[in-house]
């Protein structure tokens, strides 16, 4: 051994071999464990490209055509929740019969904050609540639960509807122009995909009588205008 160590050439080869082994082992470890299972958490990569970091929780491609189409849209951010009993129970939605519109009920909070709250229910276990989509104050659209999976938003209609939560600045529950526009765009897109007409757009209020979304319950004309805007947007892209 001493003889080998004394030979600079052999020593160099040994060091290179050791480095190669360590690097190879690190790659194998990363491949086997880093992205597997929902307990692994967001993958920590030096360079975060778009929403790729959260794609650990993305549904498998090919399971749902409409979800695959959604995943291709550059105006919808993938921010999928980890599968857990409190916000993403991994139950299938067989048929979508309606889109349910909600307001977040927590003035001034962002889409990202609400998404993280849903995700963290896995740990806090304080309640069961979530939404397929959240639209933020600046009109950003975050998808939290795939469209072919149940989200906990609309009581007994969770199994045959898609939920959209809208953020709002104050207690009135009125939506910013940006939030409103994105809600129209996303709802119209979903209506086209699922072949839904205006009666397929409902409020949480229509499901359970809850004052949600507040502005659209208190202002029936604003709700009717929203549905008309969705119908118009849907027709334009047909
Ligand atoms: Zn609601």
Q: Which strand order does the major sheet show? A: 1-4-3-5-2-6
What is the molecular shape? elongated
* Overall residue-averaged pLDDT value: 86
N-to-C order of helices and strands: HHHEEHEEEHEHHH
- Binned, the helix content reads 40-55%
Level-2 CATH architecture of the largest domain: 3-Layer(aba) Sandwich
Strand content: 5-15%
The largest β sheet comes out as:
6 strands, mixed
Given the structure, what is the number of helices? 8
What top-tier CATH class of the largest domain fits best? Answer: Alpha Beta
Radius of gyration, in angstroms, nearest whole number: 23 Å
- Oligomeric status of the shown chains? single chain
- Return residue spans where pLDDT drops below 50 for at least 5 consecutive residues: 28-53
Task: Indicate the topology.
Blueprint lengths: L1 H5 L1 H27 L30 H8 L4 E2 L19 E6 L7 H14 L8 E3 L5 E3 L17 E6 L10 H18 L6 E3 H5 L5 H5 L1 H17 L2
Parallel strand pairs: 1-4, 2-5, 2-6, 3-5
Antiparallel strand pairs: 3-4
For the structure shown, list the relevant keywords:
single chain; 238 residues; alpha/beta; Lysozyme-like; 2 domains; six-stranded mixed β-sheet; 42% helix; binds zinc ion
Describe this structure in words.
The chain folds into 2 domains: 2-34; 59-236, Lysozyme-like, CATH 3.40.80.10. The protein contains 8 helices and 6 strands. It has helices at 2-6, 8-34, 65-72, 111-124, 177-194, 204-208, 214-218, 220-236, and strands spanning 77-78, 98-103, 133-135, 141-143, 161-166, 201-203. The protein has a 6-stranded mixed sheet, sandwiched between helices. Strand 3 (133-135) and strand 4 (141-143) form a beta hairpin. Helix 5 crosses helix 8. It is elongated. The termini are far apart. The chain binds zinc ion. Zinc ion binds at residues 102, 204, 210, 212.
